[in-house]
Design goal:
Number of domains: 2
Oligomer: single chain
Number of helices: 6
Number of strands: 9
Radius of gyration: 22 Å
Length: 267
C-alpha cells in the first residue's frame, strides 16, 4: 500500500511548521514569494488499529524539515544564477536520502516529487535513487474522429458513440513529457529545459496544434487517433529527437478524466 502527501511551500519556510498547507501562503506573510509543491510517497503495511500507513502530520514534518531543507539549501547556494539542472539533480538525491533516513517507521519512502510550477516537476524513486526524472507539460488543440476503416457509420457509432461523429470533434490535449538522467553533478543525460521545449514544440505541438488529426497528419493515416495512439505517436516522434537524453514516458490527457501513457515498451 502507498500513501502520498503534498505540501505547498517556499524556500524561506524550510524547517518552519507554522505555514498553513494551503495555496494562500504563510500566516502574516506580506510579500509575494514563489511557491513550490513537494510530495512524498511512502509504502508499507496499514496499521490494523489506526488504519494508517503513517500519520500525514509526520509526512508534513518530513517534507518541511528534511526534503525542503535540502532543496532550499541548494537554492541558497545558487541564488544569483537560480537553480540549475545539475543543482536540482544533486539536491533531489540528497533530499531523498534525508527523507528515507528519517521516514516514519514502519513506512518506507518510495518517491519524492518537486514541482516548481504546474508545468515542470522533478522526481526521484526508491528503486533508482541516483536517477532524476524531469516532467514538462505542453498543450495543443486538435480535432479527430474515431472510426474503423471498413466499418459502416452505424458500426462505428456502436463502437465509439458520439466520438464517431462524421464531422469530428475537438480536445484540448495536455502532453506530459518525462525524461530521465543520472544525478551525477553534470546531468549530461538529462536534457536542458530550452532544448526540451524546442524539440517538443517543433516535433509535436507545431505539427498537431489546430489540426484535424485524421486528415492533416500523416502519422494517423490508417491509424485511429485514439488517445492511446496519440501517446504512442508522440513518444515515437520524440525518442530519437531528444537523444542523448533518455525519454522515459509520454502521457497525453484527452480530458481531465482520461489520459494514456506510453513508455515505449510496445512502440
Amino acid at each position: 500500500m502507498r500513501l502520498t502527501r503534498e505540501i505547498r511551500c517556499s524556500p524561506e519556510q524550510a524547517g518552519n511548521m507554522r505555514p498553513l498547507n494551503t495555496w494562500a501562503g504563510a500566516e502574516g506573510a506580506n510579500q509575494l514569494i514563489p511557491f513550490w509543491i513537494l510530495r512524498a510517497t511512502v509504502e508499507g503495511p496499514v496499521d490494523p488499529r489506526t488504519g494508517y500507513i503513517c500519520d500525514i502530520k509526520q509526512l508534513d514534518t518530513l517534507l518541511r524539515e528534511r526534503v525542503l531543507a535540502e532543496l532550499a539549501r541548494s537554492e541558497s547556494h545558487t541564488a544569483d544564477a537560480g537553480l540549475g539542472m545539475a543543482q536540482i539533480g544533486i539536491a533531489m538525491t540528497w533530499a531523498f536520502k534525508a527523507g528515507a533516513t528519517n521516514c516514519p517507521l514502519p513506512a518506507k519512502l518510495f518517491a519524492i516529487e518537486f514541482a516548481m510550477s504546474p508545468f515542470t516537476r522533478f522526481a526521484v524513486v526508491s528503486k533508482e535513487t541516483d536517477v532524476v526524472c524531469l516532467t514538462r507539460s505542453f498543450e495543443f488543440c486538435a480535432s479527430h474522429r474515431l472510426a474503423v476503416a471498413g466499418c459502416t457509420d452505424e458500426e462505428n457509432r456502436r463502437l465509439f458513440g458520439k466520438c464517431s461523429n462524421p464531422h469530428g470533434h475537438g480536445h484540448n490535449y495536455v502532453v506530459e513529457v518525462t525524461v530521465r538522467g543520472a544525478a551525477d553533478g553534470r546531468m549530461g543525460t538529462l536534457v536542458e529545459l530550452p532544448v526540451l521545449d524546442r524539440v517538443v514544440m517543433e516535433s509535436v505541438i507545431e505539427r498537431f496544434d489546430h489540426k484535424n488529426l485524421n486528415v492533416e497528419c500523416p502519422e494517423f493515416v490508417g491509424v485511429n487517433p485514439t488517445v492511446e495512439n496519440i501517446a504512442r505517436v508522440i513518444f515515437d516522434r520524440l525518442v530519437a529527437a531528444l537523444r542523448p537524453a533518455k525519454l522515459a514516458s509520454v502521457r497525453v490527457w484527452e480530458t481531465a478524466k482520461t489520459f494514456a501513457e506510453c513508455d515505449g515498451a510496445e512502440s
